[in-house]
Amino acid sequence: HAAPIHAEPEKENKNVALFDHLYGHPRRTTVAGAGKDVHPAVLALGLQMRNYVICGSSARCVSMLLVFKRVIESYTIPSRNSLPRHLTTHLSSQIDYIVSCRPISISMGNAIRWLKVEISNVDVSTPESQAKSDLCDSIDTYVREKVTVADQVIANKANDKIEEGDVIMTFAKSSIVQQTLVEAFRRGKTFRVIVIDSRPLLEGKNLARALADLGLEVQYSLTHGISHVISHATKVFLGAHAMMSTGLYSRAGTAIVTMSAKEANVPVIVCCESVKLTERVALDSFVHNEVAPAEELMIQGRTSSLLSKWEDVPNLQVLNLMYDLTPAEYVNMVVTEYGIIPPSSVPVIIRLSTNS
Amino acid sequence: MATAYLLRRVVETFKITDVSGLIERVQQVGQRLLAAQPREMATGNIVRRVLGVIREEAEEDRDGETSGCSDGGTHSRPLSAGEHDPRAPELPGPVSRALSSSPLRQDTGDQPPFEPSEDGAFERPTLLTAHASYANTNTGPVVTSMFSLLSHPRSNVASTTATPGSQSSGSLPPISTRALANLTAAKDLGAEIVVGIQEIVEELNQADDQIAGYSSEHIHSNEIILTHTSSITVQKFLLKAAAKRRFTVFHAETFPNDHESTHATVIGKANGGPDDELRLESFQKSLTVAGITVILTPDSAVFALMSRVNKVILDTHIVLPNGGLVAAAGAKVVAKAASMHRTPVIVLSGVYKLSPVYPFDTDSLMENGDPGRVIGYEDGGLVNKVEVENPLFDYVPPELVDLYITNLCVHPPRTVGLKVLIVCLRGGHAPTYIYRILADHYRTEDIEFDRINVCQ
Question: Looking at the record, which segments are called Disordered (chain B) (predicted)?
């Protein structure tokens, strides 16, 4: 008779009502049930993204493009169809699979939009192999221009903002911020880094380790210590998931860091490639967001026994938000490869980068 | 709580000879407690309250003796010494005091006042040396020490013990009978003081429930509440409201220092921590059982959620006289995020947490915790290279707090003035009134009891 008692709470909706629109279907954990069109490389990529092996907006974007290159290489136009028409649908099924593993980032969306335009621009009369190699080349160019070179440009520009004796605070881990700090270290600047981190991903730990291995002086704390360590910081460098004209959309906790920085009169500098800029606007962190599985919040070890049974507790829900929106007023400048701008000028850069 | 029990025992076991000795004893115990945990202000507050009780009882006692001297309570400072004032008018004030207290002092001086101390934890030798050195410093300028006797009940102890033979030898006989009468009165006094301390203990026991009594005035249906850390006070407050209303609670887990008990709280199990006994005692059914939706969330999501939160309810470690508070680390950003979103912040605090010590530098109140909680042993290699910070507390400035709810309303008559305030503010008080409550609760002479010996 114990079974029905247990079955009842399981039926309870564990979704937080405020975020019901964000839950969708549970994340795919295996490749089982994937469409037969899905390329093996995409299958692997999806799982890597799901498990945060590939994490971070740019990393996901680049790896997706590289995998799409392989998809295109192994793609053959079915008979009585044309590449611009069919490849788009073929790619769509790949994208659907990736989305089912983890919702795609803004930068991925931007890249996909660009790729689809590229595909539709391919002349129907071009021979298949030629069209495919052209597409692959343009993907390479895109990655180089929008990410690789852009990162270098941004790292250089942001470097001008690092002065001798600065104490740079950063939150979680951003590859571009890491690159900037490493570049500054290479130039022989003396500065200190404070890494603030948060559960559950603890990405900042990797950043702290990487910087400490280089020989930088690194201080590490979690969001609970922010109001103490912010007083030591002279600048806050942040990466972005996406940058909107209304604010910075980044890992949950960023808003807390920037808020504390604003209070302490510490300038906040966001390093962000133009692929991450979006015309989307959001006023809060509710409409667009990503809700990660609550299980990721469980801590292995001593407390795991406590919280692991949370699903059996009626009325208890666990919310694991991925992102939050930092109001634009907390961001002092945005460093992009096109230049250093205030958040309100984001649409200008979008226009610049999409027209060129 | 434990402090009150301890002090009750101290008072019970202390051979009460005169009030100043008792006050001194309590002060010493208090100092020792504070030295053990300097930032645990609630302990100091309890000591202050006990001192206040002793002084008050002593004053009442004296008022009874000096029948008709109704305004005796106004010059409250020379407590013990003042008892003999009206009886020995022919003697100059200071001398009479020295004389009157000397036999008693000698008594305690020969077999030190710490003798009856029940607790092995207190090392008597150190206390004795402190006492001795104290006396030595005062022997030089006798006149000033006699003078300070007027304002400082403690210092007469020193002066008399320092110069016992010279002054008391001649006038012992006339005093002894009075001392005897005094002693019996003092026994009653001791009982009264124990009753007073018992009142404090009861007040502590009831504080959470009394605070919870206000919950229905502050939580409405369908509200979204955000709270931080696991706190019995907050849980009781919400539970009381849950009896009548349905609402949602976001519970920030307060990683890494308090997340375990937070998890235990939301799961509905008592935490197996060191304070197990206390928790079991006050263990109640959890909010979720009461039908309240509880959403556990990492601290980082606080800002994101704040725009939908109607109220933030915080527990506190101590409340400072300026209306600021010291709470678990992370509380500052929660309060700040709330104020950015114009979300009201309510702080629940027992009166015993209102601390009269105003810290000039709030950093001095902070304490760092175990860095191992931030970076676990599995990342041991990182610890060598990276400086890990794990603050335990946050200072939340008063401008971030909208309301304090304390257990004051059903309080002894000492807080009559406050009751008016409470009624005006409907159970809560704005941060700016905190200093007023403090003034009602602690005697000014007790506020710095921990500093009295510092100069020696």
Answer: 57-121
Domain B213-451: state its class.
alpha beta
Count of residues in chain B: 456
Query: SS3 for B428?
Result: strand
* Architecture per CATH, A157-355: 3-Layer(aba) Sandwich (3.40)
**Looking up tokens 């008990």, which residue turns up?**
B261
Q: Say if residue A104's pLDDT is above 60.
A: yes
Q: Is B266 left (phi over 0), alpha (psi -120 to 50) or beta?
A: alpha
Whether A225 and B389 lie within 8 Å, measured CB to CB? yes
Which is nearest to B307 in space by CA: B227, B251, B226? B226
Residues A310-322: what's their mean pLDDT? 81
Domain A14-151 has CATH 3.30.70: no
Phi, psi (5° rounding) for residue B296?
Answer: -85, 135
Structure ipTM: 0.86
Residue B142 pLDDT class (50, 70, 90 cuts): very low
Q: Is the peptide bond before A9 cis (omega within 30 degrees of 0)?
A: no
Alpha-carbon gap: A297 to the closest alpha carbon of chain B (Å)? 8
B-contacting residues of A 170-199, CB under 8 Å?
Answer: 195, 198-199
Residues of chain A with CATH 3.40.50.10470: 157-355
pLDDT(B432) > 70: no
Query: pLDDT value at position A180?
Result: 92
Q: Tell me which chain B residues have a C-beta less than 8 angstroms from the C-beta of A324.
A: 300-301, 303-304
Residue A195 and residue A169: Cα distance in Å, rounded? 6
Interior CA angle at B342 toward B245 and A226, to 5°?
Answer: 105
Contact call for B329 and A228, based on CB within 8 A: yes
Measured from the Cβ of residue A24, the count of other Cβ atoms closer than 10 Å reads 12
Q: What is the pLDDT of residues B373-422, one digit of tens each?
A: 777 766 767 777 888 888 888 888 888 888 878 776 433 223 333 433 44
Q: With an 8 Å Cβ cutoff, are B295 and A225 in contact?
A: no
**A348 at interface of B, judged by CB pairs closer than 8 A:** no
Which residue of B224, B259, B287, B303 to mutate against A (max A Cβ within 10 Å)? B303
Q: Establish if A163 touches chain B: CB-CB under 8 angstroms.
A: no
CB–CB contact B298 A297 (8 Å): yes
Residue ranges of chain A assigned to CATH 1.20.120: 14-151
Q: For residue A226, list chain B residues with Cβ-Cβ distance below 8 A.
A: 333
CA separation for the pair B328, B252 (Å, rounded): 12
Which residues 201-230 of A are in CB contact (within 8 Å) with B?
Answer: 205, 208-209, 212-213, 217-229
A302: contact with B, CB 8 A cutoff:
yes
Which residues does residue A248 pair with via DSSP β-bridges, in sequence order? A243, A326
Distance CA A347, CA A262 (A): 24
Q: Are A34 and A56 a contacting pair, CB within 8 Å?
A: no
Instruction: Say which residue, B210 or A99, is predicted with more confidence.
Output: A99
Instruction: Find tokens 């939150």 and name the residue.
Output: A171
Say if residue B341's pLDDT is above 50: yes
Q: Is the alpha carbon torsion for B28, B9, B437, B415 positive or negative?
A: negative
Boundaries of every domain in chain B: 2-205, 213-451
Structure tokens at B189: 């006094």
Does residue A200 have a cis peptide bond before it, meaning omega lies within 30 degrees of 0? Answer: yes
| Pairing, β B293-297 against β A316-318 | parallel
Any alpha helices (H) in B66-154, and if so which ranges? Answer: 79-82, 93-110, 124-139, 142-151
Rounded (to 5) percent helix, strand, coil in chain A: 50, 15, 35
Q: Among A39-53, A194-208, A257-271, B16-30, which range has the highest average pLDDT?
A: A257-271
**Cβ proximity of A6 and A79 under 8 Å:** no
State whether residue A167 is helix, strand or coil. strand
